[in-house]
Request: fold
Amino acid sequence: GSYTGYGRVREPPKSSGLRALWSEPATNVTLLESPETRAYVHTHMSLFEMGNLFVTYGRHLQDNHASIVYNESLRINDTRAFFYMHTQAAYYLVDNYTTVMRAMMGHCKEVTDQLYDMVVGLLIIEVLIACGGVCALLTWLLLRLHKHRVALYTTFVRVPTVAVKALARRKIEADGGDSESSGENDEDVAETEDDG
Reply:
């Protein structure tokens, strides 16, 4: 049997138009209806149906190769399988698969762009969170530093204040500044007495 469904294969996404290219019967195909009368039928097929028919006819030719080739009354050109594979599938499948491949490349580029935008957004959010954390840490450290600096400053301010207050309470003697001159006068008086 041939492959007739998606099975476990994921279906193409709708957004990129791949499913329409793959599933909608958009290609006008000519099929050989009767090899004896050479009657043809025109039908619209989807790319999936064309590929499936290509695989089915290919297996038919492979399985019945001996009976077709060695049958003198039957030419291979007169079989439906060869007519379809030779005149229809070779052209339409290549063109349609190329179109699907281009659509898949466009879809992959869209997904890549979305992923890139998402990664850049996450990086920006991460940088903002990191900067906010660093700013919060620096603010906390500065507040602690300010607190310790204020405590240290008040410690240094209190010690001189006590010393200055103690010095301010001492009495200043009035003749403390003339003590040297009075000592010199006493020596002069003593010398004059010795001379006398």
